[in-house]
Amino acid sequence: MTQALVQIDNLQKWYGDFHALRDVTLHVGAGEKVVICGPSGSGKSSLVRCINHLEPFQGGSINVAGVALKPTGTAIRDIRTLSSMVFQQFNLFPHLSVLDNLTLGPIYAMRKTADEAKAHAMQLLDRVRVADQADKYPGQLSGGQQQRVAIARALITDPQLLLFDEPTSSLDPEMVHEVLDVMIDLAQEGVTMVVVTHEMGFARAVGDLVVFMDAGEIVESAPPEQFFSAPASDRTQQFLAKLDLSV
Amino acid sequence: MAERISHTRLGDGQTLPPPRQQSGFLLALRQSFFNGWVSSIITLALLTMLAMTLPGLWSWAISDAIWSTQDSSVCRAASGACWAVIGEKHRVILFGTYPYDEHWRGALVVALVTGLAVLSAIPRFWSSALFVFWGLTTVLVTILMFGGVFGLPYVGTNKWGGLPLTMIVFMTSVVLGLPLAVVLALGRRSHMPVIRAVCVGIIEVVRGLPLISVLFMMIIILPLFLPTDLTIDKLLRALIGMVIFFAAYAAEVVRGGLQAIPTGQYDAAKALGLSYWPAMIKIILPQALRIVIPALMNDIIRAFKNTTFVSIIGIFDVLGATKASMRDVDWVRYSTEAYIFVALLFFVYCFAMSRYSQFIEKRLDSERER
Predict the structure, then answer these.
(1) Which domain holds residue A175?
(2) Domain ranges in chain B?
(3) What is the mean pLDDT of residues B103-121?
(4) In-domain check, residue A226
(5) Distance between CA atoms of B248 and B181, rounded to whole angstroms?
(6) What CATH code is carried by the domain that includes residue A183?
(7) Closest to A47 (Cα-Cα) out of A203, A234, A232, A215
(8) End-to-end alpha-carbon separation of chain A, Å?
């Protein structure tokens, strides 16, 4: 069996006394798209934030592309270099133009030249269809545009792994699709994606595996057809019943 | 049962002009000064007080004042203010004990620093070239003040005084104090216990001491710890004290700005793979410092006034020089006039900085809206 790109084994995490992740094991193969869903507080955001060590964990292990995640040494840096993250609140840098938001990583984390970074950035902005906004500041853009810029910023380091933490949850309904369309395009290009989202349409369209979490545990994981048509656990059924699946 | 009315507007909507506003001088006067009987009584009381004080002030400061004379007995014969004291003593007030024939060097220093400060304040000139100009000015100021080269006679720091000295103390406190403040503020938030403890220690100890005692420590106590053959210039020691004092206060202001930055900004910087210093310099500090500019301006204005404290350790800033110049028995009766002059000098600089801080605040607000 080939080694998975992301290999999470028996992960344990506490916030103070609160046991947030309970013995979570999840393997993501290279090129796979994994969609994680679950009610709020189920630990799904904590899980993806552990992968690039934005959150520390207290037990178990995480391996990304053969790098074992440890709190000391270069492991964190290595994993952050080969992965990228898109956040719920976009987290663009408000004091920098769209273009500078993109070129910052290549210039200061990857030692690329400014010209190289700029050319690459324009290419990516074009791909997420906001090239005409390159000189504006994030505050001048709509939520959907900002999140597409954030996706372009995540792509500019040529990551092997893309982490999405509820990328459409703070968008107005009419902007969700422009972001999802970009994500679906990306998914078809072979990059590995771990996506926390409630957009089941996205899961159906590109997901290889849908993971349902509740109370810090993975309750169920299955390919989308099976997950939606024949959910095994009661908790999954109840959760799906509350979601609007018409999307 | 009541019949339900229709909420839909009937017919076409119209664009109406806004209601006419009442205005006019008399109305404004009434609303501002005679708006009810309490307001009227206060207005009348204040008018009475002005009527009682203004004529006396006018005759003392203007009509009976002596504007210029070299003979202090002329002043003694007059009942008004003796502004002539300023003409007589302005060289000592402005340049202290700096050699008389070299005063032009001090004047040039004041002009250079003030001029460049004004230029630096104008947004149109904001560029990295300013740093070069400040660097050059520092070299120029050093050459002008010390001399010893280019045929300029050497003047030791023990002879420095007056407005150039005030400028040097002020500029040094701010220009070296701000970077130190940033380092202290970052250190206070460090995850490394030793660094954090050192920074908290410096900030809290210095903030817990009056500036006077910090200066005395630098002058009297510091030499006790240093090897006897190592003597540090008195002015330099005072400057170190001023820099640390300014930095300790400004550090807390900067820390406030750092705390105002959403954690998402740190997350995004980390996720991009940026290490600590690039993340701070490119992402966190530009935003944090922008937030605290108004509060920092407050500290900067205070730093200008704090320069007067150096006079108690025998360094003659402009206020100390004024005090020293009034030892002249002929003119000592007119120290009030001399102090008013110095007060005006301070006011001009501080008021300019205060107005500028309001301007910059407005400008940053409008930037935030974009």
Answers:
(1) 6-90+160-242
(2) 160-317
(3) 90
(4) yes
(5) 6
(6) 3.40.50.300
(7) A215
(8) 36
**With a CB-CB cutoff of 8 Å, which residues 275-294 of chain B face chain A?**
275, 278, 282-283, 286-287, 290
Return the number of other C-beta atoms located less than 10 Å from residue B175's C-beta.
Answer: 13
Contacts of A78 (CB under 8 A, 6+ apart): A67
CA distance A113 to chain B (A): 16
Alpha carbon of A51: minimum distance to chain B alpha carbons (Å)? 10
Q: Which of B233, B100, B92 is nearest to B163 (CA)?
A: B92
Residues B273/A80, Cβ–Cβ less than 8 Å: yes
Q: Which residue has the tokens 């595996």?
A: A209
Model confidence band, residue A247 (pLDDT cutoffs 50, 70, 90): very low
Tokens of B284: 């966190």
Q: Regarding predicted confidence, which is higher, A245 or B245?
A: B245
How far apart (Å, rounded) are the C-alpha atoms in residues B166 and B235?
A: 12
Q: A212 with A220: CB under 8 angstroms?
A: yes
CB contact under 8 A, A105 and B274: yes
pLDDT of residue A1: 42
Cα(A101)–Cα(A93) distance, integer angstroms? 6
Q: Report phi then psi at A134, rounded to 5.
A: -55, -35
Q: What is the CATH number of domain B160-317?
A: 1.10.3720.10
Total domains, chain A? 1
- The rounded distance, in Å, linking the Cα atoms of B63 and B43 is 28
Q: pLDDT (tens digit, 9 = 90+) per residue, B220-232?
A: 887 777 777 777 7
